[in-house]
Write a structure and sequence with these properties.
Elements: H1 2-14, E1 38-39, E2 48-49, E3 62-64, H2 68-75, H3 85-96, H4 99-103, H5 105-121, H6 131-136, H7 156-161, H8 176-194, H9 197-206, H10 208-217, H11 231-248, E4 264-266, H12 268-272
C-alpha cells in the first residue's frame, strides 16, 4: 500500500497540469459528453445505459474502408437460427431501437475493423467480431459489478489464464489489442473443447465448467438450444445471432450503408491509442503518452 501511494505521488508530481481528479470508470476520458448507448436488456430487466460516447480521436494512419459491412457479412459462417423465439425477440428489440447501432458508430469506427481483421486472420466465424458489441458496447472501460472489464469483459482469473497483464496502473483487459488476442485464444480453446460454436460462445459467457455440467445432465445429442443453461447465457447467444442476422440483411433498414464510409481500417497503434490499457484513476498531464512498465 505504501509503495503504491509513493508511486501515485510521483505521477502527481510529474503531471504539472493534471486535472484535480481523473474520471471514474463510468465517465469517458474526454470531458465532453456524447450520446449514451442503450444496451439491449436481459429478459425482465431494465435497459442499461453504457458509458457516454466521446468523439473518436483522429488516428495517425487510416485507410478508407467503405465496404466493411460487406466484408463482415461475407465472413459470417454460423446458422443464426432466426426462427428461434429467443432470436426473434432480440431482432424485434433491435428493430424497435434503431438508434442502438447508430449510437455505437463512433466506437465501431475505432475498433470493429481491427477486431474483424483479427477474426478473419484466424479463419474464425465473422460473427465473433460482434461479441464485444454484446459484451461491452465496444467500451474498453466498461466494468461490470461482477468484476469483468474491457471490450471483451474478462474476469480477473480468466485474464490471468490467458496472459493479460494487470498491475498497479495497467490493466490488459482494457487494452483493445491485448484483450482481442486473448479473447480469440479463449474462443478457440472453447471450440476445441466443445466442437460447436454456439456452445463455445455460451462457454465464453457462462464459463466452460457450467456448459460442461449442462451437457452432462442433458440427454445425448443436446445442443445449446436445448441445454439447461443460466438465464443470461440463454439470452446471450441469441442476442449475438440476432445482431448478426440484422447486419446480414441490408434490406432490413437497420444498417445504414452510408455509415460504412465512415469506417476505417486501423493499424494496431490506431486501435490501441496512446494510453491504451491505463487505469483511469491516475491523473495524467494533458497530452501525456505513458508507456506501461512492469
Amino acid at each position: 500500500m505504501t509503495a503504491t501511494i509513493v508511486r501515485y505521488s510521483l505521477i502527481m508530481m510529474m503531471s504539472l497540469n493534471a486535472a484535480c481528479q481523473a474520471p471514474s470508470w463510468t465517465a469517458d476520458v474526454s470531458p465532453s459528453v456524447g450520446t449514451q448507448v442503450v444496451m439491449a436488456p436481459e429478459p425482465g430487466m431494465p435497459w442499461v445505459i453504457s458509458t457516454p460516447i466521446a468523439p473518436v480521436p483522429t488516428p495517425v494512419v487510416t485507410t478508407q474502408h467503405p465496404d466493411l459491412w460487406s466484408k463482415i457479412r461475407n465472413s459470417f459462417r454460423l446458422d443464426h437460427n432466426t426462427l428461434d423465439r429467443r432470436v426473434q425477440q432480440e431482432i424485434r428489440w433491435l428493430t424497435d431501437h434503431p438508434q442502438y447501432l447508430e449510437n455505437l458508430q463512433a466506437r465501431m469506427s475505432r475498433y470493429l475493423a481491427y477486431i474483424h481483421d483479427q477474426v478473419v486472420e484466424r479463419n474464425l466465424p465473422g460473427e465473433l467480431a460482434l461479441l464485444p458489441v454484446i459484451e461491452s458496447a465496444l467500451d474498453p472501460y466498461a466494468f461490470s459489478p461482477g468484476g469483468a472489464a474491457g471490450l471483451w469483459q474478462f474476469m480477473p482469473a480468466t485474464a490471468r489464464r490467458f496472459g493479460l497483464d494487470r498491475n498497479w496502473w495497467y490493466d490488459g483487459r482494457r487494452d483493445p489489442i491485448a484483450s482481442t488476442d486473448a479473447a480469440l485464444n479463449y474462443l478457440e480453446n472453447l471450440y476445441a473443447r466443445f466442437g460447436d460454436w454456439p456452445l463455445a460462445i455460451a462457454g465464453y459467457n457462462a464459463g466452460e465448467g457450467n456448459v460442461q455440467r449442462a451437457i452432462r445432465r442433458a440427454p445425448q445429442g443436446a445442443d445449446f438450444w436445448t441445454l439447461a443453461l443460466p438465464r443470461e447465457t440463454k439470452a446471450y447467444v441469441p442476442r449475438l445471432f440476432a445482431l448478426s442476422a440484422v447486419i446480414n440483411d441490408p434490406e432490413s433498414g437497420e444498417i445504414d450503408e452510408a455509415l460504412a464510409a465512415n469506417f476505417l481500417v486501423r493499424t494496431r497503434a490506431d486501435a490501441g491509442g496512446p494510453n491504451v490499457g491505463t487505469r483511469r484513476d491516475i491523473p495524467l498531464a494533458s497530452g501525456a503518452h505513458l508507456i506501461p512498465t512492469d
